[in-house]
Structures are given as C-alpha cells and as structure tokens.
Write a structure and sequence with these properties.
Elements lengths: L3 E6 L6 H6 L2 E4 L2 E4 L2 E4 L6 H7 L7 E3 L3 H13 L3 E6 L7 H12 L4 E5 L5 H15 L4 H11 L3 E6 L4 H5 L5 H9 L5 E5 L2 E6 L4 H14 L9 E5 L2 H15 L5 E4 L2 H7 L3 E7 L5
Parallel strand pairs: 1-2, 1-6, 6-7, 11-12
Antiparallel strand pairs: 3-4, 3-5, 8-9, 8-13, 9-10, 11-13
Helix pairs in contact: 2-11, 3-4, 5-6
Length: 282
C-alpha cells in the first residue's frame, strides 16, 4: 500500500508541533502589509499580525499559488505516495481551486483534494481526523469515503470582540461597525454551505457566550470525534467558554488552538471559536 501524505493550508490553524509530529504538510497563505509580503506561520506569527492591525492600513491575505501545490504534489508522487489535500472553503478563498489546478496539470489520480466548506479549525478538524485514520491503517479509499461523510457534519461558530477589523477588511460598513461597537454588539458568525453567515448579534460578552452554548444545544454533538475551542489573544475568555461547555455537555477532552495570522487578520483579538462534528444520523 502506498504511503499516504496529508496536505492542508495555513488557514486550518494546525499547530506546528502537531504538523511536525504527524507529518502534515501545511502550505502558507501570504500576508501583505505596507509593501512587504510574509508567509503565514513562517515569516509572521499571530502576535506580529496583531501589531499590524494597529495601523490604519489593514494587512491583506493571498491564496496559495498553484505552483507551490504542484511542487509539493510532484515530489510526493515521485516517492510513490498518495495525497489527501484538505483546504479552506472554496466559497471563501481560491485555495481549493489552486490545489485543483495543480492536480489537473500533474494529471495524477493519486491526488485527492477536498473542499472543507469551512474555515480555521473547521478545516483542521478534518485534518485531525485524517491523521487518526492514516495512523490507524485505513486505506486511501476508506479515508476518501469517510471524509466525504464527515465534511457536511463539521460545525463552526465564532464570536468577535469588536467589529473594527471586519469593517477595515470591508466585510461590513463603517457605520454598522460604529453603531455595533457603541451598542457593545458581539456578533456570532457560523459557516453555512461553505459561506460565513451571522448567527446572532447579542449585546455583551456574557450573552454572546450563552448564545454560543445555545447553538451547541441545538446541534447533536459527536463526542467521539475531535472537539475544539480556539481563540485570538484571549485565553482567559476562551477558558471561560471551555468551562461552560464542560459543565453543560460533560465534554472533558477539548482540543485548544490559537488562531493563526490569516484568520486573525479579519477577526482581530478577542475572537473565540468553537469547532465540532455533529453525529451521523444515518
């Protein structure tokens, strides 16, 4: 059986230690600020990115170039390997398309590319489960089949502390951001059909955290699969949410991550995300 290699991109927020320990290839998006370009997670970390957010000029992200995919895929194919490549939602970025272009140019059936239809560790959940399957000896066909089943079961919600960065990034108007901040609105965003949509707009952090818990109650959490809470520079607040989850759902094994620069660019500090799978109701 050919060795199976796992590829993803930096928006999946896979911790570098985990990637190294489990041989996950993470291709970086690029971040441009004041004429300089940085590779996400290589040339810049989240702390450095947050310093950039203090400027009037917001950093901008760019998708992974197809050539990077081609070079990596070609090297793996030459070694006789097969590839599982999992990426940020095609509804939010062109990363998935870049991977598909590379596959088409190489012309190999040993490359299996997946649109996570999600963002941040919503993609990372799928990488995490793929690692588990590879290390458990699953065949490539079984992994492909399982991933196609898992993708529609991923759920992600996050709350932002301020609307300032969504405004700077052009996601909402300046007027809406000003009014929202004056009213202390903490919008909760989730993924639906590969796009980001507003779940609710509660006022104040406590109401926002309670609404996030309510969303979990509305879903059927699969406690047998990875459950994760991530944050951008607000560990104490994230720990408060983790305690609420443990007390409400009796989930003790919660994976924690710090969101990377690409995600932090548009969310800003004070963002908390919850990522999980729903149960298979078949």
């Amino acid at each position: 059986m050919n060795k199976i290699y796992i590829v993803t991109d930096s928006t999946a927020d896979i911790p570098s230690k985990f990637a190294k320990e489990h041989n996950v290839y993470v291709l970086p998006l690029t971040i441009t600020h004041k004429g300089k370009t940085y590779r996400d997670g290589i040339d810049i970390n989240t702390e450095g990115l947050l310093k950039m957010l203090q400027d009037e000029e917001l950093p901008k992200t760019s998708q992974v170039n197809p050539k990077l995919f081609m070079d990596l895929y070609s090297n793996i194919i030459k070694k006789g390997g097969e590839i599982i490549s999992i990426h940020l939602s095609s509804g939010l970025s062109g990363v998935y398309q870049s991977a598909c272009i590379a596959k088409d140019l190489i012309g190999s059936d040993k490359i299996h590319i997946f649109d996570s239809k999600n963002v941040s560790f919503g993609t990372g959940l799928l990488v995490y489960e793929t690692v588990r399957m590879v290390e458990s000896g699953y065949t490539i066909n079984d992994i492909v089949e399982n991933l196609n089943s898992l993708i529609p079961r991923v759920r992600m919600e996050f709350v932002v502390d301020t609307l300032e960065y969504l405004s700077k990034g052009g996601r909402i108007s300046n007027v809406a951001a000003t009014v929202g901040n004056l009213l202390n609105i903490k919008p909760i965003v989730y993924t639906k059909d590969g796009k980001l949509e507003v779940l609710d707009k509660p006022r104040g952090a406590k109401r926002a955290y309670n609404r996030m818990i309510q969303y979990l109650e509305e879903e059927t959490i699969d406690k047998n699969l990875c459950f994760c809470v991530g944050n951008v520079a607000c560990t104490d607040e994230a720990n408060e949410v983790i305690k609420m989850i443990k007390d409400t759902f009796n989930i003790n094994d919660i994976y924690t991550i710090n969101a990377g620069p690409s995600i932090a660019t548009y969310c800003g500090p004070g963002t908390i995300g919850i990522y999980f799978f729903t149960r298979d109701e078949k």
